[in-house]
């Protein structure tokens, strides 16, 4: 430097510049590099020095200048950048990209130079900038008044410069003709991460966090897979925030959702890492070289936006250096070597250990309190909270949206509205539209043009690009937008399968999906599973497939919009009918004893089919389905539900005028009558019994008429008209015998036997039941209930014959539990309690009474024919034991489930094996049917004995 140059003193603004990637540029241009370097020097010397700056050092591609005025320094940098940008360089790839840094501090020159830390601070600021960028310190920003015309300073926040302990607030010069979009400054921040700051608390997922963290520690690529809205991003960010200290070179978050061109995924990752393109070199090579020697975790979010390109970048990064680990979130896996796929489950909806609230309920409670100004739902709303999270399948986004609805709805109102999941959760929100078209490009094409331009620094993002960014963010504003994000990536076969699978209410097997479509669905189903739109759940018998309820609701909407709903749902109704028939047949196709357990897994599917039959399908098909659930509804304590479905189907018949054969109406009315009786609606029971008889007579089917007439005594019994009921039973039995349809009148036989038992005609009842045993055994729909053994057990109890009572009741209870007749099993448990009283096992009797009552209460069913009898026995037992002892044992029984209660009843010792049995008395040889002494006094033959 010439000693004649005047160096400013006092408040001096120092400027450093150099060419970004100069080494790479020199290698690429070869002999053409010196002219480019010389032209760069000429332009900067003319613009920088001409603005009053003192040139202290020019070395290679670098300049060091000092300015007495901060405004002049900024003006010089602005002029220099514009000159470089406007110059006609030999090739676009050979354009030098210059970074500039400014800092203002108090300095005095000595011996023609500045020995001040302010110089080093300015150099570090320049090193933090990117090619084409001008950065300055807060001190320069304060002293730069006025700024160059049309210019402003953009606050980039606090940054720690290399070699300095404090933090410096950096500003970027913004002006027409200058780039605006740059990666973050290349500074030595103390906390090396860019994880997004969350504005709401993270709730639950403790088990998942532990499991996922262990995977990240032992594998270099972990992909968190799940449907939209299941909380992949939130969990990944929460986890990454907890491992920042383990990665000295940082934890870096990259949102691939904003990148709509495959070629720009590497640019997106590089921008987060503070890298810029090098002339003539693929961005991915620059990225790999930078990461090779570093230990870092890269969190690639929403990779399903660009799965192939994301996979390629991940593969190159992992191959380039062992210090890089990748945590990816996506709706589909990459299929890369070494990839560990971890599927995020929905939030748990069942209470945790110790009765603590499930994660799903805890999230809803937290977000509801926020939505209501800090007021949490009260205790009365707890049951409805659980209904809501179950209906939403524990999907976090759906729960968040549901909490927002609780600003205007009670929890009960929200739960009642969730039949329309999307309509309720998305109310008042508009799903984002696709990015707008501009300059003849579609939204995605325009975005590619804009991002590519922005990546090489030729133009700022356009409105189209910003629209894509908004769309990527807004995809989580509504459930519909979230699912649409994935739906748009499906091919025709996969999208059709998704729509048609919306008809299923729960998990289904592959063969069921194939039955529905009439073709092999494996390829399309694999796509849906890979994209996390359908969950595959491995089981011992083979995988089952299901959709989360919000996705099912979306697919159902698409099904209707595609005009396919009628065909798909009618096909589902046909499958439901087929499944009902199959449940009654053995492997050889022959009828087997009906097990209601076979209907339990079908219940939700049958309800979905019934819903369609009652609203848009065939009411006749719905009546057939209802008939298949006849016993199941009553034995599960759901007689009221059965009645409501029948009423809806009657309404459908009235609405569409569908013709229903009289025989089928008679069967439906007869079933309705039985449901009404079980539900305590005795007038309705009699009314529908009469309708059934009229329709059966009109049909002219003798067997059907016998079955209907056999049930006519039931409403009379319920109404207390016992004599009339007995007369009807006898008439029906005699008439059925004459018509040779006596097996169809079996229900009348059972009703008559009960009436005989009630009035103490035990011998006649036993004889009647003995004749009915082979008829019951020959009927698959009847024999699992073992009504003959139950009634013979009651007759034996009335006679005081504990051996016969024990054996008959044990047979009846085993069969009823084995075949799922839970309502009738409660009666048998009560009967065994009476048998325990008779043998002196009073505490067991009280426990069994308590268990049977608790189960029946949980089923919300009426006590039935034997209700008064059980009550009388309990009153007498309480008198013997005393209130405290009886209540304690009764309460113990109330804690038992039905299976536990049945096990307790079946564990009661056979009377002949008890130590008090007369057969063990010295010299005694008692009859196996010798009545045992009754602890309550004389035997009780029946209520009217």
Automatic annotation (TrEMBL):
Gene3D superfamilies (alphabetical): Nucleotide cyclase, P-loop containing nucleotide triphosphate hydrolases, Tetratricopeptide repeat domain
Region (Disordered): 919-945
BP GO terms, sorted: cyclic nucleotide biosynthetic process; intracellular signal transduction
Positions of the Guanylate cyclase domain: 13-126
MF annotations from Gene Ontology: adenylate cyclase activity
Compositionally biased region (Pro residues): 928-938
CDD domains: CHD
UniProt xrefs under InterPro entries: A/G_cyclase, HTH_77, Nucleotide_cyclase, P-loop_NTPase, TPR-like_helical_dom_sf
Database matches in PANTHER family: HTH-TYPE TRANSCRIPTIONAL REGULATOR RV0890C-RELATED, REGULATOR-RELATED
Descriptive protein name: Predicted ATPase
């Amino acid at each position: 430097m010439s000693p004649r140059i005047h160096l400013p003193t006092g408040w001096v603004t120092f400027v450093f510049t150099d060419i970004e990637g100069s080494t790479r540029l020199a290698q690429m241009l070869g002999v053409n590099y010196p002219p480019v370097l010389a032209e760069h020097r000429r332009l900067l010397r003319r613009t920088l020095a001409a603005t009053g700056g003192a040139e202290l050092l020019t070395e290679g591609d670098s300049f060091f200048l000092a300015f007495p005025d901060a405004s002049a320094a900024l003006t010089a940098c602005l002029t220099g950048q514009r000159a470089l940008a406007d110059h006609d360089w030999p090739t676009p790839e050979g354009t030098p990209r210059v970074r500039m840094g400014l800092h203002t501090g108090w300095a005095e020159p000595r011996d023609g130079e500045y020995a001040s830390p302010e110089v080093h601070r300015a150099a570090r600021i320049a090193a933090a900038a990117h090619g084409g960028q001008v950065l300055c310190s807060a001190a320069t920003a304060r002293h730069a008044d006025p700024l160059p015309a049309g210019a402003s300073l953009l606050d980039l926040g606090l940054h720690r410069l290399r070699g300095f302990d404090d933090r410096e607030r950096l500003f970027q010069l913004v002006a027409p003709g200058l780039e605006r979009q740059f990666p973050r400054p290349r500074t030595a921040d103390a906390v090396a991460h860019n994880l997004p700051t969350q504005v709401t608390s993270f709730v639950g997922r403790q088990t998942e966090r532990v499991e996922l963290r262990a995977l990240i520690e032992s594998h270099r690529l972990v992909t968190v897979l799940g449907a939209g809205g299941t909380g992949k991003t939130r969990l990944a960010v929460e986890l990454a925030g907890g491992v920042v200290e383990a990665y000295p070179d940082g934890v870096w978050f990259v949102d691939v959702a904003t990148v709509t061109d495959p070629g720009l995924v590497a640019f997106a990752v590089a921008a987060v890492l503070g890298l810029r393109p090098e002339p003539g070199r693929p961005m991915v090579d620059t990225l790999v070289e930078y990461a090779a020697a570093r230990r870092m975790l890269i969190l690639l979010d929403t990779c399903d936006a660009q799965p192939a390109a994301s996979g390629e970048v991940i593969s190159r990064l992992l191959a380039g250096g062992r210090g890089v680990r990748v945590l990816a979130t996506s709706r589909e896996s990459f299929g890369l070597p070494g990839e560990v796929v971890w599927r995020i489950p929905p939030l748990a909806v069942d209470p945790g250990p110790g009765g603590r609230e499930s994660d799903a309920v805890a999230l809803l409670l937290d977000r509801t309190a926020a939505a209501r100004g800090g007021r949490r739902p009260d205790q009365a709303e707890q049951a409805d909270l659980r209904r809501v999270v179950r209906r939403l399948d524990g999907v976090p986004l759906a729960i968040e949206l549901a909490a927002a609805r609780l600003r205007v709805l009670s929890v009960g109102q929200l739960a009642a509205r969730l039949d329309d999941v999307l309509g309720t959760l998305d109310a008042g929100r508009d799903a984002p539209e696709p990015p707008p078209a501009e300059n003849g490009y579609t939204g995605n094409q325009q975005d590619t043009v804009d991002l590519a331009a922005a990546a090489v620094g030729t133009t700022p993002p356009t409105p189209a690009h910003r629209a894509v960014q908004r769309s990527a963010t807004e995809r989580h504003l509504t459930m519909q937008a979230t699912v649409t994000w994935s739906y748009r990536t499906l091919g025709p076969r996969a999208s059709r399968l998704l729509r048609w699978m919306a008809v299923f209410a729960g998990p289904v097997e592959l063969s069921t999906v194939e039955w529905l479509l009439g073709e092999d669905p494996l390829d399309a189903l694999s796509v849906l599973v890979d994209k996390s739109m359908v969950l595959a759940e491995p089981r011992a018998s083979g995988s089952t497939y299901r959709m989360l309820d919000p996705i099912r609701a979306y697919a159902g909407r698409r099904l209707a919009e595609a005009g396919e709903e009628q065909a798909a749902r009618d096909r589902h109704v046909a499958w439901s009918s087929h499944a009902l028939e199959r449940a009654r047949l053995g492997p050889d196709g022959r009828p087997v004893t009906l097990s209601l357990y076979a209907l339990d897994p079908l219940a939700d599917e049958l309800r979905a089919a019934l819903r369609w039959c009652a609203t848009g399908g065939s009411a006749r098909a719905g009546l057939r389905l209802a008939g298949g659930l006849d016993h199941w509804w009553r034995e599960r304590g759901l007689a009221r539900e059965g009645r409501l479905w029948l009423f809806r189907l009657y309404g459908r018949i009235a609405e569409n005028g569908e013709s229903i054969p009289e025989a089928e109406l008679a069967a439906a009315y007869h079933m309705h009558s039985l449901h009404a009786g079980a539900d305590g609606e005795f007038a309705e029971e009699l009314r529908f019994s009469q309708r059934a008889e009229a329709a059966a007579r009109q049909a002219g089917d003798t067997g059907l008429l016998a079955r209907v007439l056999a049930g006519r005594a039931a409403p009379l019994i319920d109404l207390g008209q016992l004599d009339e009921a007995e007369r009807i039973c006898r008439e029906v039995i005699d008439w059925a015998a004459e018509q040779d349809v006596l097996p169809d009148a079996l229900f009348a036989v059972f009703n008559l036997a009960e009436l005989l038992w009630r009035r103490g005609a035990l011998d006649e009842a036993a004889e009647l039941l003995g004749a009915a045993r082979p008829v019951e055994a020959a009927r698959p729909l009847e024999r699992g209930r073992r009504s003959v053994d139950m009634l013979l057990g009651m007759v034996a109890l009335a006679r005081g014959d504990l051996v016969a009572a024990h054996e008959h009741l044990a047979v009846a209870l085993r069969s009823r539990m084995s075949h799922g007749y839970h309502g009738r099993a409660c009666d048998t448990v009560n009967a065994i309690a009476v048998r325990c009283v008779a043998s002196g096992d009073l505490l067991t009797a009280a426990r069994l009474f308590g268990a049977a009552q608790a189960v029946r209460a949980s089923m919300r069913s009426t006590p039935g024919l034997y209700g008064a009898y059980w009550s009388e026995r309990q009153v007498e037992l309480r008198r013997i034991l005393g209130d405290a002892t009886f209540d304690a044992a009764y309460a113990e029984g109330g804690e038992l489930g039905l299976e536990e209660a049945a096990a307790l009843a079946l564990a009661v010792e056979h009377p002949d094996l008890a130590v008090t049995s007369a057969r063990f008395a010295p010299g005694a040889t008692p009859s196996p049917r010798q009545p045992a002494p009754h602890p309550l006094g004389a035997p009780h033959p029946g209520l009217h004995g």
